[in-house]
UniProtKB/TrEMBL annotation:
Residue ranges crossing the lipid bilayer per the database entry: none
Pfam family, one: ECH_1
Name of the protein described by the UniProt record: Enoyl-CoA hydratase/isomerase family protein
Family that this chain belongs to: Belongs to the enoyl-CoA hydratase/isomerase family.
Record flagged with keyword Isomerase: yes
Keywords per UniProt: Isomerase
Molecular-function GO term, any one: isomerase activity
Highest taxon above the source species: Bacteria
Amino acid sequence: METDDIVWERQGSRAILRMNRPAALNALTASLRQGLVEGLRRAADDPEVRVVILRGEGRAFSVGQDLKEMQSYYQEHGPQLGQLVEDEYIPIVHALRGLPKPTIAVVEGAAVGGGMALALATDFRVITNRAQLVPGFVNVALAPDTGTTFLLARAIGYHRALNLCLLGEPLRANDMVSWGLAKIAHESSESLEDELNTLADKLAHGPTRAYAEIRRMFDRAQPLGLQDVLMLERDVQDALAHTQDHREAVDAFLAKRPPNFTGA
């Protein structure tokens, strides 16, 4: 799938979704948001895809909602921003967090507002030293949305997340590394691509269903009590014990050979 705002391509077992509005710093429009949802669903349904990569064309990952479009939306609908969030932003988060395959965001510049939320909603982030996450909602007198409060607080802790969102201050690349949101802040695109390729290859050859279930457990576990978490872990382990990948892992261990995971 290829549109003006989203480019979708498959390279072997990788699906790559590229936000393609570099002149507007990949500001999120209705067509871009729709393209993201459609692209993620296509990746979910493609049996050849084992890992999904999300990145932005140009010098920004995404600066979030296109404010020119928002102004037009307000003129037509009034300030019904909650409806816009429900109809067009929440489906992207659901598509990312419910994707039955691991996800990687490549962040080479600013990820602002809803763009930051997209980067946080992926399983991994590979970044350059120019990357920054900016919860800029407060700068336009709004509160975080698109799962930001949930995802950011879990990633860096309640008080750090609250202070960043109240002040609208950027989380810079070195802090992203220090606080566990990325492994290293790369100085060159070459070293970034090396890390990306290594990570993507590892995930593409791993137990795909187990990856999805691990993410689902982490998303559900924190609001639950201990007993509920114990039962959730029991049910997930039982389901994964019936997968071909688990049987292959046991057979490979007993045979003293590397496992050959197929994602089944």
